[in-house]
Specification:
By secondary structure, the chain is an alpha/beta fold. The chain has 14 helices and 11 strands. β7, α8 and β8 form a beta-alpha-beta unit. The mean pLDDT is about 95.
Length: about 475
């Protein structure tokens, strides 16, 4: 079965009309896994046989007219921070965290209740602490758009975007503390959604920074993101507002934020970004310059370790004593010094970020969403990041544009809008106020409808399905 041209909505309808079977979907994903692993190294733990069993059960119930939810029969990959029944959780570390991390939280429970086959657990940067996607313990997944040069897959949900690109899953669960959903989605040509902090529960997910962590989803298109978002909301018993593209782009106000987000960006990425905005403006969208108050102050705190470094250090000491000396060196690099931060200094950081978040809301008085490049630089070659300084510079540059939404409490989405001068995907980031995910996804759907899907895995020169 060729899954490349079928949306989740089309598959949902086809499963219920019995044009498609869940077993066939899972088998197609398993065949793609066999074709591309271990070369791309998307997964820490493969669960294909159990997923096919779940798919078979979904088919038997669908044959009887029993519908357990929109994700029924849809193959999903899950970042190896989420507890999944019967599968170990390593969180990218050197050994499993133990049986207590095999008890699913609410989001994985929704997948189980809707009989969505979990194809496996994808690689992550150790404890999700990094934007590059590197892991010294288990190897770094290969970006399908740069296999020959082993370009980074983006982190920390490093295997999630790769799993979608290789076709071993149709939807991916990730987490986002500073961009860990949007970065891997952007650099592998996928779409990704970072929710407002607290909108979805983080129970059953290994924490990095409880003040900033949020679950998120990656999919092959914004259309699929919207479908999955509504499916999970339905599983949580939430109200189901309609999310659809606007009838006219004339009703969409886009705020182009350049002073902070375009500094130091690759020229060809800026060119793709501006070309996309020009097309949107020609289609009727109102594109204007915008300022985002508070982002410079928030990013300065982030560069000093933000809230993640001290909160992660506290988690390790409380829950996993003795692990600090066994951390991946690139993770330890980011944690060093956190122990010396005083409680007063930590609380001052919290206060400053809250103040910056309040100031940021003013940016949305003249814009429905703010637009930036998702990642300002092309994904580097892994070989070029072996030196500590090179890794640090690249990591901060990869994280810079995405981290702001987390630090200022916004929701955000990325979608592919073209290829840079190296032939690598470029993502467009949209940011909206807290708890405005429906508005955000409607705007992203409108943009996707206007621009089409200019980044297609079939056009990837290094990776032929």
């Amino acid at each position: 079965m060729d899954l490349r041209r079928l949306s989740l909505g089309q598959l949902h309808a086809g499963l219920r009309s019995r044009e498609y079977s869940a077993a066939a979907l899972a088998s197609a994903c398993q065949e793609n896994y066999r074709r591309h692993e271990p070369a791309l190294n998307a997964y820490k733990t493969w669960n294909g046989d159990a997923a096919r069993t779940t798919a078979g059960l979904a088919d038997r119930l669908l044959d009887r007219g029993v519908d357990l939810g929109p994700l029924m029969g849809m193959p999903v990959s899950v970042k190896d921070l989420f507890a999944v029944r019967g599968l170990p959780t390593f969180a990218g570390s050197v050994e499993s965290l133990g049986p207590s991390w095999e008890r699913p939280g609410p989001l994985v429970d929704i997948l189980e209740r809707q009989l969505a086959p979990v194809m496996g657990k994808t690689h992550t940067v150790e404890f999700a602490f990094g934007g590059i996607g590197a892991n010294a313990h288990w190897g770094t997944p290969c970006n399908p758009w740069g296999v020959r040069e082993h370009r980074i897959p983006g982190g920390s949900s490093s295997g999630a975007g790769v799993s979608l690109a290789q076709g071993s899953a149709l939807l991916a669960l990730g987490t986002d503390t500073a961009g860990s959903v949007r970065i891997p989605a952007s650099v592998t040509g996928q779409a990704g959604l970072k929710l407002t902090h607290g909108r979805w529960p983080a129970d059953g997910i290994v924490p990095l920074s409880p003040s900033l962590d949020t679950p998120g989803i990656l999919a092959r298109s914004v259309e699929d993101l919207a479908f999955a978002f509504q499916a999970i909301e339905a599983g949580r018993g939430a109200a189901q507002p309609s999310i659809r593209a606007m009838d006219s782009m004339a009703g969409l106000r886009l705020g182009r934020v350049d002073r902070f987000f375009l500094g130091g960006a690759d020229a060809s990425i800026v060119e793709v970004f501006d070309r996309a905005l020009l097309r949107l403006a020609e289609s009727g969208a109102r594109v204007g310059d915008a300022a985002l108050p508070g982002c410079h102050e928030a990013y300065a705190i982030f560069q000093q370790g933000g809230l993640a470094a001290p909160e992660f250090c506290a988690f390790l000491k409380a829950e996993l004593p003795g692990r600090m000396d066994r951390l991946d060196p690139v993770v330890r690099l980011r944690v060093e010094g956190a122990e010396s931060l005083s409680s007063v200094d930590y609380l001052l950081r919290v206060h400053a970020l809250r103040q910056a978040a309040r100031q940021a809301l003013g940016a949305f008085e003249a814009a429905d969403v703010l637009v930036t490049p998702t990642v300002a630089i092309a994904p580097p070659r892994l070989a070029d990041l072996q030196a500590e300084d090179a890794y640090r510079r690249a990591n901060m540059m990869v994280l810079r544009n995405t981290s702001i939404a987390n630090l200022l409490g916004l929701c955000a989405v990325t979608l592919p809008v073209g290829l840079d001068a190296l032939g690598l995907p470029v993502g467009l980031q949209l940011m909206a106020p807290p708890h405005a995910e429906e508005r955000l996804l409607a705007a992203a759907l409108s943009i996707e409808s206007c621009l089409g899907k200019p980044v297609d895995v079939l056009g990837c020169p290094d990776f032929l399905l």
